[in-house]
Amino acid sequence: MAPDHTKIKGVARTLRRVLEHPHVRFVGGVEFGTDLTRADLARSHHAVVYATGASVDRRMGVAGEDLPGSVAATDFVNWYCGHPDNTWDDFSLDAEEVAVVGAGNVALDVVRVLAKTADELRHTDVPEAVLEVFAASRVRRIHLLARRGPLQAKFTAPELRDLLDLPGADIVVRPEQVDIDLTEIGADRPGLRDVSRAARTNLRLLREQAERAPEGRPRRVELHFWSRPVEILGEDRVRGLRVERTRLTPEGHLEGTGEHEVLDVGMVLRSVGYAGVPLEGVPFDSGARTVPHEEGRVLDAGEHRCRVTTWRGGSSGAPAG
Ligand SMILES: Cc1cc2nc3c(=O)[nH]c(=O)nc-3n(C[C@H](O)[C@H](O)[C@H](O)COP(=O)(O)OP(=O)(O)OC[C@H]3O[C@@H](n4cnc5c(N)ncnc54)[C@H](O)[C@@H]3O)c2cc1C
């Protein structure tokens, strides 16, 4: 969770109420697959719920992705949040220009935090050592890259508003990218026919922003829709990012236009989706990167693993899994 979303962090109180309920026993520091197996759990429980999240980030699959300075947004977030899984000791913010790839809320969180000063983060629970790095940050220009348009962006209006309200950054939206006539959508593009209320709100906010002239604030955030990374440039570290303009085909598929641009960035943060990792002894769909299931019940080669079709929690119970 973003450290500056202090209200949302209140969810910890709710989680605590659940975990401290007398019918709940919380056992921490236990790794499924290492400390115990599915068979161990099945021996002593009627059912097992796998809720292990989507813990690895998806890669962009472009050349240069492993160069120093090319980082998964989750690693960056773990670092600035002081997450126990953090593996970065000394992250530095010495690039003046940074690209954040992705159009979801995590990407917006990362852009917003990067555009803040150490003083703006001081009231949060960002670790002291991280605040020192933010105090020395050289980041001045941040590019947010979305491979589709404003109507397909996954971010939500509250997060977008938080970005647009930043006092220390100019948020630059290109007017031509938000000049979309909603009444015409879908006439020749079936992929765009259904425009959700959320997408309409995003579009309205972006349009209003596009009309505001930059005021020369200390930092500048540029939103690039219809842009996808094709190569991270550099030999010893990230020195630039080559991006290609994209468009939708009449059928609603994404395609490159062949027009390229190089952004002069020294760091690339990717936030292009997350995926589950296989759990020992539990079926895994390597395409969808999830546990295959039907309405929550685990499927093994298309079959239910549970022998009992309905289990209502009695002591005669179903085998776990
Ligand atoms: C940077 C960021 C900011 C976000 N901000 C928000 C926000 O403001 N609001 C919001 O609603 N959502 C937010 N989200 C999304 C939210 O975090 C996820 O939707 C949510 O955490 C998913 O919950 P989950 O329980 O499915 O998985 P997770 O929260 O990922 O929980 C899975 C748990 O399983 C554990 N685990 C994994 N493998 C094993 C194993 N083998 N053995 C034992 N334990 C294991 C993990 O350690 C973890 O504790 C954010 C996500 C990110 C990355």
CATH homologous superfamily identity of the largest domain: FAD/NAD(P)-binding domain
CATH level 1 name of the largest domain: Alpha Beta
- What is the mean predicted local confidence, pLDDT? 90
Number of domains: 2
- Give the helix tally: 9
Strand order of the largest sheet: 2-10-3-4-6-5
Distance between the termini: 30 Å
Structural write-up:
The structure is a single chain. The protein is an alpha/beta fold. The chain folds into 2 domains: 8-53 and 275-304, no CATH class; 57-274, FAD/NAD(P)-binding domain (3-Layer(bba) Sandwich). 23% of the residues lie in helices and 21% in strands. The chain has 9 helices and 14 strands. Strands 2-10-3-4-6-5 form a 6-stranded parallel beta sheet. Strands 7-8-9 form a 3-stranded antiparallel beta sheet, with no helix packed on it. Strands 12-13-14 form a 3-stranded antiparallel beta sheet, with no helix packed on it. A hairpin with a 5-residue loop joins strand 8 and strand 9. The radius of gyration is 23 Å and the shape is globular. Mean pLDDT is 90; it is low at 314-321. Bound molecules: flavin-adenine dinucleotide (FAD). Flavin-adenine dinucleotide (FAD) is lined by residues 1-2, 5, 8, 31-33, 51-53, 55, 74, 77, 106, 109, 279.
